[in-house]
Amino acid sequence: MDLHLKDKVIIVTGGARGIGKAIVQTLTEEGARVAIVDKLVQASKTLPDRNEKGKFFHADLTSEAACKEVIEDIVREFGALDGLVNNAGFNDSIGLEQGSPARFIESLTNNAGHYYYMAHYALPQLKKRRGSIVNIGSKTSVTGQGNTSGYVAAKGAILSLTREWAVELLPYAIRVNAVIPAEVATPLYESWLQSFTDPQEKLKQVSKKIPLEHRLTKPEEIADAVAFLLSDRSSHTTGQWFFVDGGYTHLDRAIN
Ligand code: NAP
Question: What is residue 242's predicted lDDT score, i.e. its pLDDT?
Fold first, then answer.
């Protein structure tokens, strides 16, 4: 299936590692011009070889000013925008007991603030090209995880904003959808595993509970869903929460 993404200009936040990097790779293979935005400077040297049509932009998205500036830089470089993938995020474990009101608000800003800032500043350009937005959520926003109020609240807000923006942007035919991962093998996931005394045992326990093939989701499997939702092959799909998780969130627990 041709996704018609050739030469489309698409921003991927957190595109230097993990799920974001896989999205960059997939979109590049589809012929898109990808603007990779990340705070991980050294990663710019290890980006996909075939990304000759794309470019790396360094920004820490926790700052609104940085989001505004990076959108301006991208538009100056590429002249247009067709898509935005809000992906950067970090499970910072700010809980009720092990946290504070100030750190809770900080976590919300760090995880959800830039989804709004990026969409807000990209919007004038997206309106010109009937662009598409994909927000990366987390299954923790519908299941809870424990000891991570800030991250979970931010991911819940991201699902609500997906619905809200889908409605607000109907007049411009801009579609907005969310892709929701559960357990994906990425550097972030690896560092979470390392927080357990026996990471291998923890990985075994989690994998056992994933109904489809008892394994973690691959970043490329998330990326394929994102590419589809960005493309005009999903031209009548908007406001949707699309779980790519091997059935982890919804299938009957009795099967495990
Ligand atoms: P990852 O391996 O840590 O990669 C995320 C990338 O985003 C990193 O390069 C990171 O840079 C960058 N980043 C984070 N915050 C940023 C900011 N404020 N400004 C600029 N760049 C920033 O994470 P991942 O596992 O691929 O996760 C990607 C998304 O999927 C996140 O939204 C996460 O919540 C979601 N998710 C992941 C899983 C999973 O199982 N992996 C499950 C559910 C949801 P640094 O490394 O320098 O921080």
Answer: 98
